[in-house]
Amino acid sequence: MAINNEEKQEIKPIGHNELAHKSLLQSDALYQYILETSVFPREHPCLKELREMTEKHPWNLMATPADEGQLLSMLIKLINAKNTLEIGVFTGYSLLSTALALPSDGKILALDVSREYYELGLPIIEKSGVVDKIEFREGPALPVLDELIQDENNNGAFDFVFVDADKDNYLNYHKRVIELVKVGGLIGYDNTLWSGSVAASSNAPMLDYIKRLRGYVIELNKYLAHDSRIEICQLPVGDGITLCRRIN
Ligand SMILES: C[S@@+](CC[C@H](N)C(=O)[O-])C[C@H]1O[C@@H](n2cnc3c(N)ncnc32)[C@H](O)[C@@H]1O
Question: Which of 19, 101, 131, 247 could connect to 76 by a Cys-Cys bridge, CB 3.0–4.6 Å?
Fold first, then answer.
C-alpha cells in the first residue's frame, strides 16, 4: 500500500471533507465556479450519489475529484476507447466515470488490493446500469499485469489505462502498461504533482506520506519526460494528471 495506516491517521484531521474540492487551484471560489458551471450540471445522478457517499468516508482524500472524472470521461469518448484498464479503484468514482463514458460493449479491467472499498460503491454502480462493463480483480496489480503481458494477445489490447494506486510502483506499472496499451492509446497517471510537493524544496514542511512518496513521483515524471515511446501532457487537474499517448 502506498499510504500506510499511520499516515492515514495523519491525513484524517486535515483530509478534504468534500472530494469535489481536491484541487491544486489556489482559489477555492474559482474551483467552485468550475464545478458549478461545468461539472455538476452534467454529473450523472449515480456519480453524484457515489461522490456524496465517498465524501463521508474518512479516507475520501484518495478519491478522484469530480472535475478529473469529467476529464476522464471526455478523453475516453474522444479516443473512442472500448477496452480499458484501471489500477486503483477505491470506492469507484473514476471507475464509474469510465464505465458511463464507454460504449455499451466497452470493458474495464479494474484492479485493487481491496474488494472492501470497491463494494462500498458497488450498489450505486449496479444502479447505474453499467456494472456489466466491469471486471474487478482483487489483489496487488503488478502480478496481474505480469500475467497479462505473458499473453501476447494482450499486447496493445487496451485503448485507455488509468493508474491511480501505490505511487512507489508507478514506474513498475509504466514498464508493463506501455506494452498493454495500443499505439495511439492513452495512459493517465494520477497525482503526478503530488500536492505540489514535486516543485517544493526537499526540506519544505510537508505531511509524512507526501514526503515519503515524493521521490517516486519525481522519478516517474523524469522518466516519462524522456520516454521516446510516448508523448506526454501534464495537467494541473486534481492532484496533477500526466497523459501519455503511446506513439511507438
Ligand atoms: C487513490 S485510491 C484510487 C482512487 C480511485 N481511482 C477513485 O476514483 O476513487 C488508490 C487505490 O489503490 C489501491 N492500491 C494500493 N496499492 C495497490 C496495489 N499494489 N495494487 C492494486 N491496488 C492498490 C488502494 O486500495 C486504493 O483503493
Answer: 101
